[in-house]
Target: Cell division protein ZapE
Amino acid sequence: MPTRLVDRSPSVPADRLVAELVPPPRFDAVRFSTYVPDPAQPSQAAAVQRLEEVAAGLGRPAAGSSWRRLLGRREAAGPARGTYLDGGFGVGKTHLLASLWHAAPGPRAYGTFVGFTNLVGALGFQQTVQALSQHVLVCIDEFELDDPGDTTLMSRLIGELSDAGVTLAATSNTLPGALGEGRFAAQDFLREIQNLSGRFDVVRVEGEDYRHRGLPPAPRPYDDATVTARADAAGPGATLDDFPALVEHLARLHPSRYGALLDGVSAVHLRGVGTVTDQSVALRLVVLADRLYDRAVPVVTSGVPFDDLFTAEMLRGGYRKKYVRAVSRLGALARDAG
Model:
């Protein structure tokens, strides 16, 4: 019999948050050599070359900051600079970031933007800085600013790490100077946003979403009876939930616990998926979609298709890129389920 996600309330201690600063299981085996650049998009091959140079430079002992060692820039003393991979959904930015992590020597950390803010919440700011300052590389995936508090926090954290000579690398769907646009009064935090922007060199990665390139569309949702039958037949690790109940359950869990919520889960089955109209609910579903995708957990659903999970107004708003990414990833997981 399938279990239910709504019956799980995992506790995630701070030491687990630190131990999990590694690429997610989906990216365990990725390397620069496994990234296949699109010949029609020269920026992809250029990005691979750039990050290979960064990885090679990490092993060179030299005076000065990490990024002066790596890139031969700015001989005068100053803060380290990072690499910021900017591009659309599904162009392989996370693949490249994880490949950099795998290629780096010495201690390094990898996490999502939300993961690092959760780490600060668990450890405290100074202890987080102390722990991460010992690393040669810190990789931040899905960099985005959703509120003023995150803006100030990440500005301070990145500044401290950069000044300590830690090599930084990040991915995002938004140029660093435009972070926070459309979400809050970004002009009130312009100094912090400009400080973040000034810490990175931008590497643009062009292309189409590989998750849907040349592939058939994701399967349409099934009826409730089919979802239930598939869950019953799926074996150990399968879960079966009603979508409204899961939405309510997620509201009671901090997003930092969504990964632990999926421990041991082999497939997720959801009945009655509906269009979300509340922004807070939508953002929690984005985090859940990311954790499902990280762990390559297939998803089988009834109700509305994922293209209709978020309202048209949401898809035009400030969080548009988050929602489009979630739809893309959930569609890939539905295709994996067959």
